[in-house]
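Good morning C.,

I know you're traveling, so I'll keep this short. The sequence:
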Amino acid sequence: MKKCNTELMKELKELQNQIEFAQQREDRTCVIRYGDNDKNEVVSDYDYDATRNNLAELQKEERRLKGLLAYSNATTKVEGFDMTIAEALVYLAQMSQNKARLTRLAGREKISRDITGRFGYPEYTRALYDIKKAQADLADVNRKIASLQMAIDRINLSNMIDC
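The tokens, ready to paste straight into the viewer:
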């Protein structure tokens, strides 16, 4: 059976939810608490071995899906970008960091004035770079991020993996 990357990612997310639920259920049901005066002990259907086996199967499937996705990410090229999905995801994170930096730089005034100190003396701050260039670079990074995100989405929906 073949599935696209996006289907595998959704299956992986559901599997991780099942693992988390099983672990939370175990935490709730693996012990019982009662007082000295309680005549009827609370009964739990907790089964250590069954829980352990269930989690082991879920985790085995999680490893399998992650392996398939990792292989696909490492070998599948993103159209329009000379890089694999894995490289594109790293590039996307780098561009997001650049976007945050450029957003700060692009939002400054060329010269700003603040009142500082106990006596209220004015203090001036002057940007040592071309703010308009930072704004243009920010717009360019935003376009590149959007383009790369769309390319990654397209390949994740169209690339089929043998499961």
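Safe travels,
E.
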